[in-house]
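Protein details
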Amino acid sequence: TGLATRTLSGQGWAFGAMLQPAAGALLLGASVSEITDAAIDFDQLPGLDGGALTERVRSAVGDAPSEPARQAAAAAAVEDALTEAPPVDEEGLLVNAVVEYVEDNSHVQRVGQICEKFAVSERSLQRLTARRIGLSPKWLIQRRRLHEAAAVLRTGKRPDLARVAAELGYCDQAHFGRDFRTVTGLTPGEYAAEPRHS
């Protein structure tokens, strides 16, 4: 939920896959809250044969990780492995919809708005998001707000940070600054001043 880094050294390549929010609990076979802010190895996922998948991806990529055909073969290996995971249930579909709603609607500033949209109580929503994605509904809103802030700060113009904070629903600039630094490791001003590469 805060800044996490992993330094990779040496030569080689890395392969990643973006999954829907509901996938975590299905692959873990338990509440995702048990692994929030933790790194786990593929081999620790009961819903996936991580060791076999790692070998299939390595074999598909071989010694040519930049070749599109090799990348496609690696992606196909991941997709094939995921077909063995349990199907998404109604609760998983709901959590996917909740996350999508928060990400796509900047007018959502309060947890109560999510509850109204999906006709669930605040406590039920908190339990759902904790169990299925390891996070609170409030954190989902905060994450989207901070993504929006980062987009504004990346424009290269010197933004009025108090105005940015207010537009994103923060009660004051200091609160916005603390949240932003927790997630990025930089103050909003430091982030805005960093050179951008195109």
Q: What stands out?
A: The two ends are 28 Å apart (CA to CA).
